[in-house]
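Example 3.2
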Amino acid sequence: QVQLVESGGGLVQAGGSLRLSCAASGRLFSINAMGWYRQAPGSQRELVASITSGGSTNYADSVKGRFTISRDNAKNTVYLQMNNLKPEDTAVYYCKAGITILTIALVYDAWGQGTQVTVSS
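Structure, written as tokens:
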């Protein structure tokens, strides 16, 4: 079983910055695409940004130019640098990783537990 552990959330004023991290741990696995999603109260979970194993990125229109996703394959970690934060960015942020368990060729999506980001106006 692969676990994803997120960190870096918190309370910040509008215009500020936060950096989220998500580290994967386990045995005999590989990671495919990774991504960050968010869910605000009363709203559906939405994709914020994703990155392939080769480094290609994709962003939601609402965060383009403000957020940057990156990954360190040696550390099995994905990051989300969030700049110029706005109150509407307030949500629980979740990390997702496409996992392949090498010994049994099992492929599935793993999710982190979520980290709260609150942006005050």
